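Section 5.1 Outputs to date
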Amino acid sequence: MKKLHLLRTHLINAVPALARDPERLLTFVEEGSIEFRRGPNLTHEYQFTAQLVLTDFSADLDTLIVPLLQWLAEYQPDADPAQAISFEAEILSHKSVDVALRVKLTERVLAKVDCDAGRIKVDHVLARFEATGCPAPRWQLLIRDSAADADYTLAAEWDNAHGG
């Protein structure tokens, strides 16, 4: 489940609260299954719901959701927008919450059997779908609480995982 590791790394790099304390991001897999087809090869696909739990989160939720959506656009663009992400939150105080996100992911694995050599070669296919027309090497997330506010506030910034 290499995608979950990539997602975790992306969020830790992009979300300032997680960059300061990555142990506050807990990751689990729930509702996992493996789809395969009968045949000479052992190619299969992991299908699972990743659960991302952020403990004692006091930043603006957009500092988490916007980088998550950016990552999904690149690594899981075929996700159903209405079902790809769900969440729950427990209000801890006026300033902090525990947030549990559920993100549906798939990961294809090519496993080719070579009977003559007695080998099985496995490749994880982590297809990337570059966002066209927006190759910025660095991103800044600017948030304005309401249209009445004159200025945006810098809430987060991160490097493009692939340098543009």
